[in-house]
Design goal:
InterPro entries: Acyl-CoA_dehydrogenase, Acyl-CoA_Oxase/DH_mid-dom, Acyl-CoA_Oxase/DH_mid-dom_sf, AcylCo_DH-like_C, AcylCo_DH/oxidase_C, AcylCoA_DH/ox_N, AcylCoA_DH/ox_N_sf, AcylCoA_DH/oxidase_NM_dom_sf. The chain is an alpha+beta fold and 408 residues long. The chain has 3 domains: 9-98, Acyl-CoA dehydrogenase/oxidase, N-terminal domain (Butyryl-Coa Dehydrogenase, subunit A, domain 1, Orthogonal Bundle), CATH 1.10.540; 131-241, Beta Barrel (Butyryl-CoA Dehydrogenase, subunit A, domain 2), CATH 2.40.110; 245-402, Butyryl-CoA Dehydrogenase, subunit A, domain 3, CATH 1.20.140.10. It has helices spanning 9-35, 40-56, 75-85, 91-94, 101-111, 114-126, 243-277, 291-319, 325-350, 352-355, 361-370, 378-396, and strands at residues 131-134, 151-155, 158-169, 176-182, 194-200, 206-214, 217-232, 236-237, 281-282, 285-286.
């Protein structure tokens, strides 16, 4: 049988090492950051303190090849490691596999020239710089990049960029941005109108307006103005007119990477729910003995089970060079909603304590809400799933390739 849902001993050993490192080393330090109300200076101090320890233990960049200093894990192995790392809020940062740098590393690895890799990818891998991805704009729908208004016009040997971006996550403190701008507005195919550029954040005209305050506070989701920002011709990442393709290549695995991390959060919330239900006594019995609470557990367990299977299957398809758009779209929708629902149920079981900031649940709930918007809103993934399902049926007379192309 080719179907095997277990990891080989080497991968299982790595997963266990990450789990122990997060529990014994990272979690206690993260608790101090939380006790300091997530003060940015304290957060940065913790990252700088713990990153060398992660490197010493060989727990550095699980997503990158060994020749770039990473662990060289396959996508399925990465799923196991990412889920463990995300059980501690700061975990992915300590291992240098946090968004958006993780996705930008992949993008530079696959699309960058040798010069771009040395100038921008290597410092990212070494952990000496950070980056951001600048695509979304406030004036147009973020889910439709063909509508982008930021322009890049050729002037001699330079490109001149003008535009308005927001939710450029990670911009504050980043040394460069990957910017998607319109270079060929008259291209017959809308998807061929945009191009990706590498733009140093210290370029004249790069104006970081603000860190946008969200319902969970400020988390480095920045608004940026590009005012006659000049970059050389060789600042193009990939090919001219290839910005849409680059974005889709980047966002597919990036969506799955989010799902991998969300699984760790879902599992943490469910464990908190079970623990609370088995220790809280009310109205003549433990909460765990009440059918309404048991249904919360059962629903959460079923949804988490499906989420894990989806993520593993998507990772398997990517690992084996198979088509994965439909599967990742469905996984992104399901896992994001499972995160929201399970955290909400855990909060309900904790009652007033869960609503307070005395447990992590309030913060987890605030963070969970963006998951249903980022990298494609729920409704966009619903639309895309239905479209690809119809394509599958119309091409083959069967829906099988639209529901995972599984052998049953």
């Amino acid at each position: 049988m080719a179907i095997d849902f277990s990891f080989n001993p080497e991968v299982e050993a790595v997963r266990h090492r990450v789990k122990i490192f997060m529990k014994d080393v990272v979690a206690p330090r993260w608790a101090k950051v939380e006790a300091a109300d997530n003060d940015r200076k304290e957060l940065i101090s913790a990252i700088l303190e713990l990153r060398p320890q992660a490197q010493e233990q060989g727990l550095w960049m699980p997503h990158m090849p060994e020749e770039w200093g990473g662990m060289g894990l396959t996508p399925t192995a990465l799923a196991a490691v990412s889920a463990e790392a995300a059980k501690v809020g700061i975990g992915p940062y300590i291992m240098n596999c946090q968004a958006p740098d993780e996705g930008n590393m992949h993008t530079l690895l696959h699309f960058g020239t040798e010069e771009q890799k040395e100038n921008y990818l290597r410092p990212l891998c070494e952990g000496t710089t950070r980056s951001c991805f600048s695509m979304t704009e406030p004036e147009v729908a973020g889910s439709d990049p063909t509508l982008l208004q930021t322009r890049a016009e050729l002037d001699g040997d330079e490109w001149v960029i003008n535009g308005h971006k927001w939710f450029t996550s990670g911009a504050r403190g980043a040394s460069f941005a990957i910017v998607i701008a319109k270079t060929d507005p008259d291209a017959e195919i809308p998807q061929a109108r945009n191009t990706a550029f590498i733009v140093p954040t210290d370029s004249p005209g790069f104006e970081l307006v603000r860190d946008i305050e969200t319902m969970s506070g400020g988390h480095n989701h920045c608004e940026i103005l590009y005012k006659d920002v000049r970059v050389p011709k060789n600042a193009i990442l990939g090919e001219r007119g290839g910005g849409h393709k680059l974005g889709q290549v980047r966002l597919g695995p990036a969506r799955l990477a989010h799902c991998m991390r969300w699984i760790g959060q879902i599992e943490t919330a469910l464990e908190m729910l079970v623990e609370r239900a088995q220790t809280r006594y009310a109205h003549g019995s433990l909460l765990s003995e009440k059918q309404g609470i048991q249904w919360m557990m059962a629903d959460s367990a079923r949804e988490l089970y499906a989420a894990k299977l989806m993520v593993l299957h998507c990772a398997y398809k990517i690992e084996n060079g198979m088509e994965f758009k439909q599967e990742v779209s469905m996984a992104k929708h399901h896992v994001a909603n499972t995160l929201w629902q399970v955290v909400d149920r855990a909060m309900q079981v904790y009652g007033a304590l869960g609503y307070s900031t005395d447990t992590p649940l309030a913060g987890m709930m605030q963070q969970a809400r963006w998951s249903r918007l980022a990298d494609g809103a729920d409704e966009v993934h619903q639309m895309r799933t239905a479209d690809l399902l119809m394509q599958a049926y119309n091409a083959t007379g069967s829906v099988n390739t639209g529901v995972g192309a599984l052998p049953i």
